[in-house]
Amino acid sequence: MKLGKIKEILEAKVIVGASLEREIRMICACDLMSDVLSCVQSRFSSLLLTNLIHPQTVRTAEIAEIPAICFMRGKEPQDLTMDLAKKNGIVLLSTSFSLYEASGRLYKEGLPGCSEYREAK
Amino acid sequence: MTPYVKAPKIRELGYELKVRDVMDRNLITVQPETPMSKVRGVLRLNRISGIPVIDKGKLVGVICVEDLVNWLMARADNCSVEEKMSKNVVTLYTDEPLIHAINKLEQYGFFHFPVLERENRELAGTITREGIIRGLLKKLEIDYREEEIRHYRASHVFEDMIADKTSLIFQYYVVGQDFNRAGESASALKKTLKRLGTHPEIVRRAAIAVYEAEMNLVIFARSGEIIVKVDPNQIRIEVEDSGPGIPDIEKAMQPGYSTAPDWVRELGFGAGMGLNNIKKCVDEMNVTSTIGKGTRVEMYVATKKESVSYEVKGTG
User: Fold this and answer.
1) Chain-centroid distance, C-alpha B151
2) Residue of B174, B180, B276 to mutate, interface with A, max A Cβ within 10 Å
3) Which of B153, B160, B216, B251 is such that its CA lies 20 to 30 A from the CA of B144?
4) CATH superfamily of the A3-112 domain
């Protein structure tokens, strides 16, 4: 699914990023960075849904090669986080939904989680 | 003479770039009823050679230096712009390729064209010779830089060096407790390994392992060092700190066991998965620690092609 379509489903706002053409294959909804690092597979583009807006979230995405992050409940990060995202070409979105609601909406549209994607191959 | 741009690279860019990419969006316009006596001031102030004339949002003409000179030469009375402007205006659309603009400039010998939005035919900007040159140069510079990065692969260093065994050593100094900078070493190492032409999956596993180790260092110690030794067959990573040490390594290895302070947990770390994650990413890991002295984590990642595994070990 195109990132642009996900933005519509989540009624999200773009904070950083020019193109929403990127294809997203799976979702990682998580507030534990270690779990993000251990579950995401890099070969397939994933989107990270999280409540954490500090720079380490973007750093984690960079290391795990996650191309896009969406923050929950209208949270918007500070400059340091945005700068890091710009530098690494990571798209940042913000939605007013909660983590549970956002996950549910995307799951309903057929986007799987990381472990499911592995099985579906 | 047929307008033709000879340089093939410029021609290519002329098709790639659109009129909107190089047009001047700074709209300076006059109305049909503007007096001719005001035109000189507008041209001079904005250092332009022509001004689009707008009536109720639509482009109705262009008044240029030549029109002004003709009016002055005729020593006629002051009149409205409408009477002296060119009404048959040659325009361009924002979505046309730049090469159309270049050809039109050549064909008509003009210095500028008004640019319209295709949908509503409203004025979107003006295109000038300077704008085109600036746009092309900028694009050439970007392309050149990207090409340079692509060419710059250091993977040949191992073949270039004459020795029985060649290794590269990278050192990173980590400042403890500084959460905003935590992960910089892992990020730098990731870029370095990529430049060396290391397999992307190997780069990712090494980067995740170093990132977790670096996080532990930042959380628990005041300072430390990461030493990475790369040879053609493997990457050896050593993360050493002068922190408080781990009392029970076996316990620390258990998933979910953590002694991290609350402020770290609030940031999404310190959930007791760090060492476990490292173990899954690397081929071999040794942890040694002395209370009050520090901790040393040693990791090995094989880089030979046959050892590339896409799956992170274990079930995650």
Assistant:
1) 17
2) B180
3) B160
4) HprK N-terminal domain-like (3.40.1390.20)
